[in-house]
Amino acid sequence: MFFINPLLIIRSSTVILLLLPCLLFAHNNPEFINKPLSSVEVELLTASGSNKNANSAEFIIVPPKETVRVVWSVNSDNKDKVIFSVKQGNKIIAKDIQNGAETDPNLINGEMLVITDVKGAEASFKLDILARLIVVKNKKGSADTSAGKRVYKKANCMGCHKWHGAGGGGYGGAALSLRTTQLDYNFIKYTVRCGRPETGMPYHGRKSYKGDDISCYDVTGQELAEDKPPRARSLISERDIDAVVKYVVNVIKGSGEPNFDQCVAFWGEKSRQCDSFKP
């Protein structure tokens, strides 16, 4: 007779269970990146003492939903001596922050913020606020946004927003800049799917405004009548909408002025589209 050792089965199963996560995720390489959210001027109102009268004008930051921490970077000669607090309404939401400190993005709920209770500053300074994001990289080490870039091209987002996303004139009118937008992932996704009434921003969702559908702005296309957004040249799936929005949020948004490296990443090394961006 042939007997199977039950311990061998258990051991084999254990090995499989232990190795499976490694096999599933071995091709991915998680990495953190810092994405600019805003730059705030903090004005020093008193030049002596504890500098507690130094503060900033009100501002809003909208961290992307992938944000794991908000990073506060002081831009001044004595940046390592500066200490400040972040106030929202009448409440201090973060106290005694120093250059490079990281705070919980969940403390920020979309209301106006003020930098206050500044200490150690010798002059007015600029505060750079960044979102610390985690991205998954593939074997080649580039952010896994290739699918979104393909959709960006296929859906002709370039027609109005241009390859670099900075906007300008197009067949749909003057498009807003995706590089400087403060809109978050969810808002951009909704806009891609539903378009913007009374503007040239078209809708791309396959079910948007179809029949009695009210998933966009809680109204039907018939109810919007002439205010209904134009139909995109090609409608795309929810999967493609998600991919292109991730591309906009992770690659285009907050990426500064268009440059040669970004152009090559979009068009390829052999394209002449990037000649004007050569250093």
Radius of gyration, whole Å = 24 Å
Number of domains: 2
Query: What is the overall pLDDT average?
Result: 81
Record field, number of beta strands: 10
Determine the number of helices (DSSP H or I, runs of at least 4 residues). Answer: 7
Fraction of residues in β-strands: 25-35%
From the spread of the alpha carbons, the general shape counts as globular
> Helix proportion of residues, in percent?
25-40%
Commentary on this structure:
With 279 residues, the chain is α+β, with helices and mostly antiparallel strands. The protein folds into two domains: 103 residues, Jelly Rolls (Sandwich); 135 residues. It contains seven helices and ten strands. The strands form three sheets. Strands 2-1-8-3-6 form a five-stranded antiparallel sheet, with no helix packed on it. A three-stranded antiparallel sheet has the order 5-4-7, with no helix packed on it. The longest helix is centred in the N-terminal third of the chain and has 20 residues.
Secondary-structure map with pairings?
Layout: H1 6-25, E1 29-43, E2 55-56, E3 67-75, E4 83-88, E5 91-98, E6 101-103, E7 114-119, E8 125-137, H2 146-154, H3 158-161, H4 185-194, E9 203-205, H5 221-224, E10 231-236, H6 238-252, H7 260-267
Parallel strand pairs: 9-10
Antiparallel strand pairs: 1-2, 1-8, 3-6, 3-8, 4-5, 4-7
